[in-house]
TrEMBL record:
Keywords from the UniProt entry: Glycosidase, Hydrolase
UniProt KW Electron transport keyword: no
Protein's name in the database: Glycoside hydrolase family 43 protein
Organism the protein comes from: Georgenia alba
Pathway(s) served: Glycan metabolism; L-arabinan degradation
Annotated SUPFAM superfamilies: Arabinanase/levansucrase/invertase (SSF75005)
CDD domains, per the entry: GH43_Bt1873-like (cd08981)
UniProt keyword Magnesium, yes or no: no
Length: 295
């Protein structure tokens, strides 16, 4: 298979040096917007060109609380295991990010946290893991526009075993702070309400020690992805938004992977239109302050 053969949203590329290859995760249901949800599949490759799959990475166990909106699985190594952070929802239950775990990169993943670790009375999605310089794990996530209108990116500290949140979430920034983000026009948004989307945060530590965050919203040419920079180099920020998006043309929800030979790859989906979404890989270069597309 080629990437052009694989329908996927919110792609996340895990590099597995001990296996000499890569595992691609993402929102893989044919229609992620409607129940019932199936789970998450993944795909393996040794060269980023040919892919093997689909491989079932997660299937909900009997009695699992969610039946819809299985979105944006990310897999991170932590304490010798593989932890998946993924978004789920159910009828009458707010959307949130739960932690799952496996002993192998491809799974099978099983629930680890007791339901979502995002606040139970918030509409949340797209949690990502960040371990700070002191070794403290944080989850950075989005507080959805559907609840707060001006979508927020927030952070909450996690326990060392990643089973639960520790303390209260902190607000990092709002979508409208980005000069490139445009107002959402939606049938569920009154004309007198300014709504802005936040999606898909991902943090990257630069070789210089700086800390940047990719995140997505709507731009002038559709779905887009920008970069925010932490002034202090810590997850608490403050965060400064770059003037123009890193990716402007109907694609987003990106992350940064490192290839087996050490190059940086931007991974995102494009177009933002079901069922046509496909993974896009583009090489990145670092500066002392940020990341840029090569060429």
């Amino acid at each position: 298979m080629r990437l052009s053969d694989i329908q996927i949203r919110d792609p996340f590329l895990l590099t597995v040096p001990e296996d000499g290859g890569y595992v691609l995760f993402g929102s893989t249901d044919n229609d992620i917007w409607r129940p019932p949800a199936t789970g998450f599949d993944c795909y393996r490759s040794t060269d980023l060109e040919g892919w093997e799959g689909p491989i079932p990475a997660f299937r909900p166990p009997a009695g699992f609380w969610s039946d819809r909106n299985f979105w944006a699985p990310e897999v991170h190594r932590h304490a010798g295991r593989f932890f998946m952070l993924a978004t789920f929802k159910a009828d009458g239950v707010r959307r949130g990010t739960q932690v799952l775990v496996a002993d192998r990169p491809v799974g099978p993943y099983v629930p680890w946290s007791d339901g979502p670790v995002t606040p139970r009375d918030w509409e949340c999605l797209d949690g990502t893991l960040h371990v700070d310089g002191a070794g403290e794990p944080w989850m950075v996530f989005c507080h959805e526009w559907e609840q707060v209108h001006d979508g927020e990116v927030c952070a909450v500290r996690l326990s060392q075993d990643l089973r639960q949140a520790v303390g209260e979430p902190v607000l990092l920034f709002r979508a409208s702070e980005a000069p490139w983000a445009v107002r959402l026009r939606h049938r569920r948004v009154p004309e007198d309400v300014a709504a802005y989307v936040t999606d898909g945060p991902f943090l990257h530590r630069l070789a210089s020690g700086g800390l940047v965050m990719l995140w997505s919203s709507l731009g002038s040419r559709g779905y887009a992805m920008g970069v925010a920079r932490s002034v202090t180099g810590t997850v608490r920020g403050p965060w400064v938004q770059e003037e123009t998006p890193l990716w402007a043309d109907d694609g987003g929800h990106g992350m940064i992977a490192r290839t087996l030979d050490g190059r940086l790859l931007l991974t995102l989906h494009q177009p933002n239109d079901t069922p046509h979404e496909r993974t896009v890989l583009r090489e990145l270069v670092e500066t002392a302050q940020t990341v840029r597309l090569r060429g």
